[in-house]
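Notes, Module 5: Reading structure tokens.

Key idea: the token line is not a picture. It is a compressed description, and you learn to read it the same way you learned to read a sequence, by spotting repeated patterns. We will look at two proteins. The first is printed below with its tokens.
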Amino acid sequence: MVTINLLNPGLQLTRTLPSILISVFLFMMAVGLLNIFLSVRMSLGAVNAQVIGIVMASYFGGMMAGSLYARTIVARVGHIRSFTAFAAVATISVILHGLFDSLATWSVLRALTGFSLAGMYLVIESWLQEIATQGDRGRLFSFYMISNYLGMAAGQLMLNVGDPVGIELVLVTALLFALCLIPIALTRATHPAQIEVHKIRFLDFMRRAPQGSLGSFSSGMIIGAYLTLAPAWGIQHGLSSAKISLFMALSIIGGLILQWPIGKLSDRYDRGLLMLVLGLAMVVMPLSFIFNLGGPGLTLLSALIFGGIAYSVYPLSVCHANDQTPHGQFVMTTTVMLLLYGIGAAIGPLLAALFMWLLGSSGLFVFIMITAALVAAFMWRWHDTAPDRHQTAFMAVPRTTPLAPELDPRSEEDHLYEADDTDEPDEQETETIQDLKI
């Protein structure tokens, strides 16, 4: 159940939204810069791809833990103080990257950064849920997604402001985390209300929506491996830091560009079939990277297209899972999808690094091809069309914390359904996020 403060929502939106979007853009820049900087720095230092995968995957493990347990901190001290604490911890962990060269220490710091980012997302998304109304929820959700994508893409390009083996980029990243504190700390908005999530059985959900579950998990594996190890691939193929940053930024921008056309197609055609097509496309696209087809221009174009395809799988998987979900359980479904994505994102870099160790730098894209081929095969095996009455509208979904689904306009239908279904909520049927059973 979600409590929304409807007291002068327009004033809340005007006061809060700009601060939130600016903060999101700034700390997503920091996240994007930190990810590409660490991968490039370790690659330039001739660090084994497997070690790079372990260090970088620690971030996603920390995010999963933060998604489940940071809620306790927020409930205890409030949203503004929690955001300040999480951002401060992220800033400190980034600075410590520059003080220690131990890869084991970096791995711990990555996990700490991931936990802190999950807490920051938790605060931001609960705040957005508070100020959203049924009439503007879709636009607010779109603004949030745009801030995410643009911030992450800008962070890739920030690699060019300093030497990857120096201390400058560490300081810039820490500065961005510190700057994101200012808009939130100075806001005059009130704290958001408590958000509760219904209990859900993990295995029961996977049996009910196998295609959506597999799509979310495999999307996490592919995106996690790509973001973690693609910069290392670029270094080994002789790309400069400037070209690597552009390569990574274009893949993220491609994900932003293709959200709308993929969404329109998914609202007209069977989503299971569309996921099959995307899986087959991801089998073909990596060939241009493996065999170095064309020059730098074609490589950058391939990155744009590949990113558009890869980043479209997760929101499509969420929509497909909701097509198979009983009415009134949208938020629960998307929560599990987020956790599946996080598990995949933690495992993907480890497996991709093993492929790179066995096959060389192109092993990253061989791993992506094999993963996509297996997904396509299972999609064909499980292919079935959801009845039209269950077909939900496509919506790009952020892969952040279990509160993200509350921002989706379709979640409003869940709350209306719950209100009509019962007069008084049963407290035993709900629980807070930190008690979520999976």
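Here is the second protein, with the sequence above and the tokens below, as before.
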Amino acid sequence: MDTNTRQDGASGTDAATPTEHPGSSRREFLGQSGRVAAGVGVAALVGNLGQYALSYGAGGPPIKIGILHSLSGTMAISEVSLRDVVLMAVEEINKAGGVMGRQVEAKVVDPASNWDLFAEKAKQLLLEDKVSVVFGCWTSVSRKSVLPVFEKNNGLLFYPVQYEGEECSRNVFYTGAAVNQQAAP
């Protein structure tokens, strides 16, 4: 068998390369990632609400979610787009009728790239704004600063990026890859 011919008979040079995905772009990837994260978050939220969600059903109060990404300071360049993706997902979910007939309401806060302020804003979202779930943090240090707040108050955080691993909390969905998932053999 020729070394450039696959078992199915196609030439190795005819195969699509990983960069040949029509219509794929960073913007589409971020948008899709945000919709998936929001969908998973809302699904988890609905499961978390249990009888409360069922008792209200259609037309009940909105489901409040928090967005904890820096909109100012050094990390804003990376985090503003994450806020935008979550807001886009909320808009799409609401246009489709919401979750069990209830609209999703996003509360956006700006921790201003200040790690101590991340913990303060997380506490505000959970205790004052009474959100059911938070999407946020871009760095490990911001995640580590809010972790005690989420664990103490039994809050739920969706952390959107890769991380160093060796941390597991029932209050955090780590949606990014850990180190062992990034290394190639």
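Summary for the second protein:
- The two ends are 27 Å apart (CA to CA).
- The CA atoms of residues 87 and 106 lie 7 Å apart.
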